[in-house]
Amino acid sequence: MENPSTLQESDDFLYAGDECECEDPTRYKQFGLHPIILGDVLPKPLTCVSDVNKEPRYRVMLKLGFGAFATVWLARDLVDKRYVAVKVGHGSDNPLPDRECEILSQIRQTGPGKHGYERVIELLDAFVVEGPNGFHQCLVTEVVSPISDPDTREHCSYDILQQIVEGFAFLHGEGIVHGDPHIGNFGIALPQLQQFEEDDIIDFFDIPEIVPVIHWDPKLPVNSFPPYLVQSVSMRYFLETRKAFPAGSLVTVKILDFGRAHRIDKDPDLLGAVPMMIRPPEFILHELCDNRIGSTWSEAADIWALGCTSLFRPGVLMKIFFSRQFNTVDLPQKRGRKFGSREIGNMTIVGILCYLLFELRSRDTDYLAPALYDRDKVWGVPRNEEVLRLVNLLKRMVITKPDERTSMTVLLTDPFMVERRKKKESIDCMLRPVSKVFGQSSDCAVA
To answer: How do residues 124-182 score in pLDDT, each as one tens digit?
Structure first.
């Protein structure tokens, strides 16, 4: 999700009411966002071009979020009586399903029953609507809480990495490259939401904060804009207050956003879009050198980006890895800045090296340890045995040469992954009913 804009900063619109952090209203234009308001039932009558007989089914309740190319809404499925998320993409002049819909539809057809399939967000329905700003792809999925939310990450453990690797092993096995694997595209499934009544959710969030959308230019087509914008809400916050947010072994990770995905056997139409700090070297070279060297996004690029993303577990791992290489306390405070744990928590190995070389301007410095010129020494030797296994796993992913990176399928047999599975099985075993109480035999082995 993109950073919200403060509406009052726009010169094109006149606003009333309190400040509200919402999407940029200027994105409601031809081939831009689709105007939606609370209470809309999608698809609206006579707007569905992918199925002209499709009846209105999904009643919009609240906004879950927005990004550069879509808005996401919490809706009630009036047929199956459940909560769903509806992602409404930006407009186009093409009424056909978009790339993300094609990829998720393929996964839904060929994936069930295969290991790792459950790690991909579940597509429940898909349709294309025609609106004032073009044709818009609508994807109906299960509801998730983004891991990019710092409060959501508090509920995560090393197990999320295992689940994500399982999901990517499945995707690559299906011949699919994700193209955009970063922390913003992973979420936690929220099946616990289904136990609550609509009134419970609506009453909890009370009257939503809205801002009217009024353009200074009266000549502009009014129907291109929604009459108001509404602030996003957090289902994590709702479930936490009800003590129903998943934690521990109940956390199920989902891989999201397949807008940059493509088949392995086809050249991608769009470049990978992960943040610069976790882009693989061959991809950066490809961009910098006008495609003369390097390569486009590939499964090897997925592996690198995921390995780097795994380093971002709120700064803790990075601090362990680099505590002997950098003196994060005594680095000079040039230009009012200090290179410390916050920067370490937001850079990859390559990014840190580039940062230091840029800031300190010299290889001969007391702050840049000689160990940085030896790849194995860069990683260090963590004292914690579990972290050591994790470091060894990541070292198999973050390798400069793409063809030397270990495949996701092979990573499933890595000692770190094996130990995580054993621990999870042990916990699951302890949570099962005691056989003596229920008169049943137990298949749990005593550790």
So the answer is: 999 999 999 999 999 999 999 998 777 666 666 778 889 999 999 999 999 999 999 99
Whether residues 309 and 238 fall in one domain: no
Calpha distance 309→249 (Å, rounded) = 22
Please tell me the distance from the alpha carbon of residue 49 to that of residue 134, in angstroms, as a whole number. 11
Tokens 């229920």, located at residue = 438
Structure tokens at 190: 């929220």
Residue at 142: amino acid letter: E
Distance (Å, rounded) from C-alpha 368 to C-alpha 132?
Answer: 57
Residue 246, token pair as written in the block: 């998943």
Residues 236 and 272 in one domain: no
Same domain, 223 and 337: no
Binding region for ATP? 87
The residues facing 135 across adjacent strands are: 92, 130
Cα–Cα distance, 196 to 202 (Å, whole number): 11
Q: What is the pLDDT of residues 324-337, one digit of tens each?
A: 444 443 444 444 44
Strand partners, 177: 262
* Rounded CA separation 314/102 (Å): 34
C-alpha–C-alpha distance, residues 114 and 106, integer Å: 13
CA distances from 100 to 72, 141, 322 (A): 15, 12, 38
**Under a CB-based contact definition with an 8 Å cutoff, are residues 95 and 50 in contact?**
yes
Burial 242-280 (b: 16+ CB within 10 A, else e): eeebbeeeebbbbbbbbbbbbeeeeebeeebebbebbbb
Cα–Cα dist 43/289, whole Å = 45
Annotate 39-48 with b (16+ C-beta within 10 A) or e (fewer).
Answer: ebebbeeebb
Cβ contact 50:147 at 8 Å? no
Q: Which residues are annotated as a binding site?
A: 87
Query: What predicted TM-score, i.e. pTM, was given to this entire model?
Result: 0.81
> How buried is 191 (Cβ within 10 angstroms: 0-12 exposed, 13-18 middle, 19+ buried)?
middle
27 and 128 assigned to the same domain? yes
Residue 182 lies in a domain: no
User: Are 155 and 246 contacting, i.e. CB atoms less than 8 angstroms apart?
Assistant: yes
Domain range spanning residue 34?
A: 5-142+191-245
Helix ranges, 221-336 (H): 235-241, 281-288, 299-309, 316-322
